[in-house]
Amino acid sequence: MAETIIFQSLPSRPAPTQTEGLVPWAKANLFANWQSTLTTLVVGALLLYFIPQFVNWAILTATTVPNAEACRTPGVGACWGVITEKYRLIIFGRYPLEVQWRPLVATLLLLALLVASCTRAFWNKWLLVLWVVIIGTFFTLMYGNVLGLTKVTTDRWGGLPLTIMLSSLSMVMAFPLAIAVALGRRSKLPAIRTFCTIYVELIRGVPLISVLFMASFMFPLFMPQGVTIDVMIRVLAGLTLFAAAYMAEVVRGGLQAMPKGQAEAAASLGLSYWQTQGRIILPQALAMVVPSIVNNFIGLFKDTSLVGIVSLYELTGSLGLALNGDADWRPYKLEGYVFITLIYFSFCFAMSRYSLWIEKQVNKSKLR
Question: How many C-beta atoms lie closer than 10 Å to residue 286's C-beta?
Fold first, then answer.
């Protein structure tokens, strides 16, 4: 006898929860539980209290007139006139006013080079040639004494050009040194491993100020009589050695995270040590530590503000140089610091966004 099948409809189910958009994001990140909701409300209340006051001070009642007397008028908020009056000294430091087009052009060329180096279309053998040409042009424009350009000694360089030059060159030179030290710390040769370990621990055991002080004041004492090295070169070397020590540990962490099977597979294919490291191990290890590497780059960019200890007036030092010597504008340091804060933030934010882009590219390769 055939079994009778009775159809029964299932109860309706709720519609799928939306996971994309502003409201789902707010629920997940701002109002996920009572602790998160309380924190969101407290922070929101503080922002509602302070932001209108800041907007009123920075925009609504601010003045851009380069007149110190106008800034002292009752009811006036931020005095952006100090930037209008002193921006050349803040941006270019003590570089001669009549030839400030030279550091402007040199800085724009260097920034264009950095952007090109971060663009995939320029990742070929000509990029190294481009670096040599533009770095040579940068120093030619800044120093002069050739092609009819007046000579400007390095002690008069300053401001944003000096900040970008010190940070970018020290980053570029520190990166291959960090890779070499990281490989050295994992070497099977005791002498190489010990030397690299001593270098890393010695540099990481002292603050950057001490390294800059040693490079500027102590290093010349060990030089032969009559031999001198420009203070900017010594500072650049100190920044490079300091950054390389920290970056080497980041790279070493990536190397240690690689499975041993990768190296064993490469050995079974007959690849040499350097072929294995260059084609298999290092590309994967560096991809894993991109956020930490960029974090070191951002820290180094901000650490250039410490070169003022050796009388090199980068962006922060140029601000002090511009305002400390002028009693009329000295009370408006806050506006000056807000100005250079925006500059630092712009560069650091750009580096962090580029880091996220690289991570997305790496994740795409893992999904193949």
Answer: 18
Output the CA–CA distances (angstroms, integers) from residue 256 to 48, 76, 309, 362, in the order listed: 47, 58, 37, 19
Q: Which residues contact 203 (CB under 8 A, 6 or more apart)?
A: 211, 241, 242, 244, 245, 246
CB-based contact 91:107 (threshold 8 Å): no
For the entire predicted model, the pTM comes to 0.83
Sequence ranges of the domains in the chain: 154-264+271-366
Sign of the torsion formed by the C-alpha atoms of 237, 241, 243 and 244: positive
Of residues 16 and 60, more confidence is placed in: 60
Helix-strand-coil percent breakdown of the chain, rounded to 5?
75, 0, 25
- Residue 147 token pair: 């092609």
Which of 252, 78, 235, 90 is CA-nearest to residue 169?
235
Instruction: Give the model confidence (pLDDT) of 255-283 as tens digits.
Output: 888 888 888 888 888 888 888 888 888 88
Cβ–Cβ < 8 Å for 265, 247: no
User: Which CATH fold topology does 154-264+271-366 show?
Assistant: MetI-like fold (1.10.3720)
Is the separation of the CB atoms in 327 and 337 below 8 Å?
Answer: no
**Contact status, residue 75 vs residue 61, Cβ threshold 8 Å:** yes
Q: Tokens for 319?
A: 């601000």
Residue 16 is classified by DSSP as: P
